[in-house]
TrEMBL record:
The protein's name: HDOD domain-containing protein
Cross-referenced Pfam families: HDOD
Entry-linked SUPFAM superfamilies: cAMP-binding domain-like, HD-domain/PDEase-like
Alphabetical list of Gene3D superfamilies matching this protein: Hypothetical protein af1432
HDOD domain sequence ranges: 148-334
Record InterPro entries: cNMP-bd_dom_sf (IPR018490), HDOD (IPR013976), RNase_Y/CdgJ (IPR052340)
Origin species: Thiorhodococcus minor
Length: 411
């Protein structure tokens, strides 16, 4: 059970009490109080999206070998329950109590706090195991020795070919035919609900003519990406598969949203959505190749602390351009509102949030139609009947077609 809160609840809480009154009111609107039963365990990693405060009851905070009893109403309970740098902490409710969750991202957005850069990572608080893993990753990144994934052969060839102003559909067709899976996917795309005409397309050259050069480029790069989300390590295989499935869904949602927004290429949005979380690939690959013995929490901590920076390194290495780099860096910042003009980052941000709204119910997550990006993209204005239209729900056939194409489904 949850309860709303008022801004006065934040008056004595560190560090949010330092915010101005209007800012506290805004933060309070995002917060919720949860009734927690005795014996309930909370982990710092699971609670990372929020800043937690104990409002009533007693908890036992465990950090390594140390245990601390925290009681509501004390000075300690006025500070966050978890230290954001110590992601392996956990807390167990000794008695029934109330937990306040505030949106960490909104707080950081209000304060102008940005994700850590490469140079700031050396200041993170780490336990011994995290220190070994993150230290090696950090040094590999800093020295440029991290094994970054290379673009699949067909994707790289398409990128290079598109630099030729005299490129022809026949030459592009020969490149695409290097990969039979991509060839089939491109033909299916040309015959899909988004592009189909009276006559079906039988071959890849005519598919390219129907789609156009730029659409072909984005589609080929996107379809070839599946090759990167693979691992021979059984322990990493399920994580790679989960990351791929998540990326495909966000990619397809980005495509659908871009089709309803003026001035955007749906195929570029599809590519942006597919690589938004690409930073997890080198991290999982690094752990796998170096045979690190890490548990799930330690690996999750590494991903949380490094995936944005590593993702930027990857898309820069691939030469996908500054728009895609911005997507990797900022598409998880739900309250992003620094520019008036919308961009591809706003589209991917909405796609991610839409997916989370549909699939997860944990904590005070903003609705996808409540964030600045929704209105900047022109999606927040009611129809003549006075009701807003869910553009994703209205385009379920398109969504299914794009997901099937990216996954290589035949049909």
């Amino acid at each position: 059970m949850t309860h709303p809160i008022s801004a006065t609840t934040l008056d004595d809480l560190v560090p949010v009490h330092e915010l101005g009154r209007d800012e506290r009111i805004r933060l309070a609107r995002s917060g919720q109080v949860f009734d927690i039963e005795a014996g309930k365990k909370l982990t710092a990693i699971q609670e990372y999206p929020w800043i937690d405060y104990l409002l009533s009851g007693q908890v036992c905070l465990v950090s390594g070998d140390k245990k601390e009893i925290i009681e509501a109403g004390t000075l300690r309970s006025c500070s966050p329950l978890f230290n954001e740098s110590r992601l392996r902490e956990h807390a167990v409710f000794v008695t029934p109590g109330e937990l306040l969750r505030l949106d960490r991202q909104l707080y950081e957005n209000i304060c102008g706090i940005h994700p850590p850069s490469l140079n700031a990572l050396g200041d993170l608080e780490l336990n011994d195991t995290e220190g070994i893993l993150l230290g090696k990753l950090y040094q590999a990144c800093k020295k440029g020795n991290l094994s970054l994934p290379t673009l699949p052969k067909v994707a790289k060839a398409i990128q290079e070919a598109m630099r030729d102003p005299n490129i022809t559909s026949a030459k592009l067709a020969r490149i695409v035919q290097m990969d039979m899976a991509v060839t089939g996917g491109l033909i299916r795309l040309a015959n899909s609900v988004m592009y189909r005409a009276a006559q079906p397309i039988p071959d890849v050259r005519n598919a390219i003519i129907r789609l156009g050069m730029e659409v072909t480029r984005s589609a080929v790069v996107s379809m070839a990406m599946q090759q990167l989300f693979r691992s021979k390590n059984p322990l990493m295989k399920h994580r790679m598969k989960a990351a791929w499935n998540r990326s495909v869904h966000v990619s397809a949602l980005s495509y659908v949203l871009a089709r309803h927004c003026k001035g955007f290429s749906p195929e570029q949005a599809m590519l942006a959505g597919l690589v938004h979380d690409v930073g997890v690939i080198p991290i999982l690959d690094f752990v796998s190749r170096n045979h690190f013995e890490v548990d799930e929490d330690e690996l999750e901590a590494a991903i949380l602390k490094l995936h944005l920076m590593v993702g930027e390194l990857v898309v820069d290495y691939w030469g996908l351009g500054p728009e895609i780099t911005t997507v990797v860096r900022e598409s998880g910042n739900w309250h992003r509102d620094e520019k008036d003009a919308p961009d591809y980052c706003d589209i991917v941000l909405l796609a991610r949030l839409y997916r989370l709204n549909q699939n997860e119910t944990r904590g005070p997550l903003p609705r996808y139609d409540e964030v600045p990006a929704y209105y900047k993209l022109g999606l927040g204005y009611p129809e003549a009947e006075g009701e807003q239209v869910d553009v994703v729900a209205e385009a379920s056939e398109e969504l299914s077609a794009v997901m099937a194409m990216l996954r290589g489904d035949r049909g």
